[in-house]
């Protein structure tokens, strides 16, 4: 997870990841979208490849890069613990809590109340 976090710490690398979100791109296409030198983009691609966030494949004379989202899962799971539910998520969480509380209270009631329910 530390290697992934270090790789995405750089804004150029994050932008490369966003570019690769929609599919494979050649190294030249990626480099053409930045105002930095091709060797600099190549170094960023190497860091992303070494961290496992992207995979490269040599197709003919082109090196194609593709995103590997598997490596994000551990980091995403860790980050998710800091999210607070909003809107409907918050309301559904409150409803779930109320359902659990009601079930717990019903189980704790004496069986006499169950007898009343059975006589009806």
TrEMBL record:
Gene3D superfamilies with a match to the protein in the record: Winged helix-like DNA-binding domain superfamily/Winged helix DNA-binding domain
Keyword Lipid biosynthesis annotated: no
Keywords: DNA-binding, Transcription, Transcription regulation
Gene Ontology molecular function, alphabetical: DNA binding; DNA-binding transcription factor activity
Pfam families associated with the record: HTH_5
Ranges of residues in domain HTH arsR-type: 1-87
InterPro entries listed in its UniProt record: ArsR-like_HTH, HTH_ArsR_DNA-bd_dom, HTH_MetalResp_TranReg, WH-like_DNA-bd_sf, WH_DNA-bd_sf
UniProt protein name: DNA-binding transcriptional ArsR family regulator
Organism this protein belongs to: Crossiella cryophila
